[in-house]
Amino acid sequence: MRSTNDVTERSFQLQRGGQWFKSKSHDTFAPIGPWLVTPDELPDHDHVDLWLDVNGERQQAGDTSRMVFKVPYLISYISRFLRLEPGDIILTGTLGGVGLSFDPPRFLAPGDRVTLGGTGLGEQNCLCIQG
């Protein structure tokens, strides 16, 4: 298990009718880490507190117990049409509180600092820069 920041370039996505692939596939998107935690190091992976702050303000918080699909199900389902190999990464979705859901929407800007992590997963810090 590890933390991954599933970054989306919303203006690119919205300008193109909801195109997800191009809005998520830039070279610096989806930073992973800071480290990999093995199952023996995280005995209760069904109850991990997760959080994300933007400029020190809590924007997202949740617990893996609230996942719509549990990890064993995801592995089983994905294995029906893809061969999973050691080292493959499955992103399980985001917590509530994405910037697009605010009124008005909140988008990251150059200089913003995003900090995310989870119980036993460490903390990841990212500085947003102009691309």
TrEMBL record:
Residues 5-124 form the Fumarylacetoacetase-like C-terminal domain. The keyword ATP-binding does not apply. Coiled coil: none annotated. It comes from the Bacteria. One of its GO terms (molecular function) is metal ion binding. InterPro entries: Fumarylacetoacetase-like_C, Fumarylacetoacetase_C_sf. Keywords: Metal-binding. This is 2-keto-4-pentenoate hydratase/2-oxohepta-3-ene-1,7-dioic acid hydratase in catechol pathway. It comes from Aureimonas pseudogalii.
